[in-house]
Structures are given as structure tokens and as C-alpha cells.
């Protein structure tokens, strides 16, 4: 692979001479632009009945599913129906897109491909079906951004520049982690995230399915896990609970994935060559499970108990499974058996981070076991527990993954380390030099739920978990640890972006934090380092954002949102009074209207008791919660809902507000798109 990359690097120098090189993300290893274009189909001049496309899609057996995926994508935006025909040949055929695994370059590996666009034919040739799929992703990006529209687009010339691409990923693990625990994303939302992963040639979907605050996966043998563990009344978002759609019929917050839901999502991901890696946390972060089944905790007299309710405000409540009770291990094996049945991929993630071992220290059973094993530290005791799980999974043909801390007590074998920590706590080097695999996801570069643009919370960005990870920080991340000897670098499987959801109450907010940083992470894991250039990436990203827009992905534009109103000191009183603004011109459609009050100048901030939307003088909706906008703002965004927009009506925004300790307050009201 290394030799291949150096060939790519030389050839790429020639390709970059073309100023108008297509804006592909992630950047292919080699791309040579040629003169001319291939016309996929004529522009639709009027939206009408689906027309048959002149261009046909030819497939061999291994490429048929991807051929059907391509035809479905093309139909949505072009309105043309593309016929799919079987062709076992390897040569280009005029007027067709040939997808084939015949006569492919074996050196490209299971995920590599060649893409040749000539004026009269397109060929995607790959050693295996995954490479064919990635070739199709590149082909789609060579088309105008409107190709990603979910609806037929009129007037777009569907042409593809003639080009030769030879490409293969740098790393086999190009991941993204979704936290469905702190916020429950429904099945359709998860599929949208999977589609966005596919656009970026990401291939590992790490799904965080349980934690202290919820259990999200149906386990048939232990039904209380979801009956009890999937619901809470205290939403506890850093944003406004009104933003969230994850409420049950009884008003409780949460939800879970049935086993049918899981199978559907796993199949959907597999069609996009994405492996789903489920995570079931153990032994820590297990309060939700222990709330359902307390008997699997330590339960000693002085031990801390399960919380009794999931309405806690701490996302890390310190729940810990008893490592000494045989029935606990049997329970965990029951759970993992059903998990393995649902997730056919090679990896099972079992968490292992931030374990609170105080119950183990107080529970005689754990102390007795620990002594009998000759173990001296709690880190080693966790290592003992984890090794049992790793060996058990190995015996069933799977590989265990755990967070950095699984190796705090020493090497755990039959395991992959997912390294989220930095500095001396980082375990990747330790794992790799012991010939154990590692996935890099350090907080400092891969936690893309952190702030992207520091200093502009509540105006340009919603609040986030504390910490900053800028777009360029992600882009410049090098997954191979600097001091890792070359002999062990192959033990670094790749890297992954993580989106923890304590501050993410909606799909819009999630996508705002995912993108464009996940675009950068895709290039980190796919493209050879010698080809990476942040300025070039930024230029390509400008085009790529048009693709995201077409797909309906709510990326962070790093821009001040539209301003819909403002206040000045002369309007402010020190006692609560109603402030009103005519926002009719900003209300162009029905739906959710989010407003963020952003203090700009003056000695006094503004306390806000509620905000309301009025239509022709009649109140339509009101969001009542205590907010403050000032130097240190607190929940100054309000969510207002307009079920139907009435043409010609006047829309007034009201706030019940008071200057805090004075009236010198001036600010603006933005309409953000992330709440
Ligand atoms: Zn115990």
C-alpha cells in the first residue's frame, strides 16, 4: 500500500496543474482531469413524468446492489429512470456506466477503485464491491451538486468531466460515533446520518446505545432494560427541551430501537458498505441497566445504589456492574448474545471508560475475588473483568473494542483500544507496540461535539460540551502517534469523529456539529498525508457544502444567523415588561421559529421570562423558561412553533424581559437554525 501511495503522489502533481479539478471530498489519491464531458442525461426542462434515460447502467453480479443504489440516487434528482443490465465484460460500452469487479487492479485492495469517465462511457472498476460503491460516490460528486437533491431538479445539465481516478483509502477504519443515549434519534434520523457518512466514504458507524441516562436497544430476554431504561422525565439539555422531538405519547422523554429497527438500520448501512459497531457499556456508565435490574450491581450495605430514576442531571452517574457476581456475567452474556445476533460485523464495543470502582472497593465479593486473583489495583481488577469479556467474545468469533481505560491495568489481549485520551493517558502507543490494534479518537481533535468557533456561543453556535475543536484542528490531525515506531504503525486502524449528545437535542443540532468537521475527518482517514492541504480543502468544501445543502444536511456555515430584530437601552425597564417586534418579513414558512437573544453592549444584561409569537394580535405559541443574555448568557434561545402560516398576516415576537440591575442593554435577536 505504501508503494502505491507514492505512485499516487507523483501522478497527483501532474493532476493538480488543472485549476478546475473537481471538488471531491475526501480527495482521491490520484485524479487526472481530461478534456471533454460525458452527458448522463439531458436537463429536465419541465418537471414531468419519469422518463427513461438513454444512458444505461451495466453491472456484474458483485456490483448489482450498488448499481441499484446509483439508479435510485439518479432517479431522485434527474427524474430519469436508469435501466440496469447485467454485463460480465470488462471493456467500456458506449452510452453506459459500467460497474465491474472484472479485470481490476488487485493492488487497490478491497476498498479501492478506478473511475474512468470518457466522452461516451463511464467505467468503475474495483477488486471488490466496496470499491465499486466508493467509485459511485466519486462519480456522484463529479456531477453538479443538485444530483444530491431528493426531488427532480429542472434545468441542470447533467454532465460529468472526463477524468481518470485511481483511489484507495489510507485507513481501514473511517468512523463516526453517534450517541443515541443522551438524545434519542429516531430510525429515519439515523438513516440520514448513515447517508451522510456514505457521501464521505466513511465505513464504521459506532453506535453508543446505553449509558447512565438511558438504554436504547431492545433485549428480548431482559425487557425492563427498555421498559424502564429508555425513558426519563428530565431532559436535561444545555439547550431548550422544546427543541427535542423525542417524547412519547405520555410526555416522557426518550425511546428505543426495536430489534426490527436495528436490523433495518444495519441492512441500510450494509448496502452503503458501512459496518455498524454497537456499544454496550460495561462495567461503568451502567446506571440505566442497573435501574432496571439492580441485582446486577454490587448491592452491599455501604455501596451506592442505582439512582432509582434516570431523571438525574449527571450524564456520568457512576453506575457499575458487579464484577464478582456470576449472575451479572451471565446477564451481560445474554445481552451480548442478542447484540451479536443483531449486528453481524466483526466488532463489539463494550465501553469501559470512566469506571467508578468505589462499590467494588466496598463489596466483599469483589474484594475476595480480587485477592484470590492476586490483583492489587482497581485498574487491574477492571482489566480482569474486561479480559473475560474479550475472551468470551473472541470465542464467538468477534473482536471486543473498549475505550482507553480498558488498558489502565495493563495489556488486555483479543481487544482493540479506542483511544479517546491524550498525553500520558493515551493507550494507542501501548496497544500498538504490543501488536494490538487501536482506533484514534482523541478529544482534542476528534470530539466534534465540542465548540467549533470559540467565543460566539448563542449567536453563531449553540452551546456545546466544553472544549474547542476547530475545522482546521480536525483537518490537520495525524492519526499515527508521533513516537510510534514505523514497525507498529499498521496497528493504527484509523480514526473516528465522535458526537456525544448531552447538548444535542435534535437532528438539526447534530448535523450542525457533525459538518463540516466530519468532512475533514473523512479526508484525514482516506487521503494520503502528502496530498492534504487545508487551503485546497477549504476551496473544495465551498462546493461540497452545496452538496450538503441539496441533501438537507444542516451544516455549520460559521456565519452569523439572520438578524430579525434588535433592542436598545431606551426600550428596557428594570421590571419585567413586554417588548414587541414585528417579524412578519422573517416569517416565510410554517414550522419552528427559533430566536436567540444576543446582548451586544451596555452594562446590563437582560433577564427573559418568556417569548411568544403572535399572529394578527393573537398568541400562537409561547416558550416559558428563564433566560439571560449578557456577558455570561444562559439559555437565551426560545423555540416558537407556527403550525400554519397565514398569508398577509402580521407576526409579532414578544418577550417578557427586564434589564438586570439597570437598563443599559443593547442587543440583537437572531434566528438560528440549530435549536
Ligand atoms: Zn460487587
TrEMBL record:
Domain Beta-hexosaminidase bacterial type N-terminal intervals: 22-168
Signal peptide start and end residues: 1-19
Cellular component GO terms held in the UniProt record: membrane
Major enzyme class: hydrolase
GO molecular function, one term: beta-N-acetylhexosaminidase activity
One Pfam family matching this protein: Glyco_hydro_20b
Residues covered by the Glycoside hydrolase family 20 catalytic domain: 171-528
Keywords: Glycosidase, Hydrolase, Signal
EC number(s) recorded for this UniProt protein: 3.2.1.52
GO biological process, one term: glycosaminoglycan metabolic process
Family, as annotated: Belongs to the glycosyl hydrolase 20 family.
Record protein name field: beta-N-acetylhexosaminidase
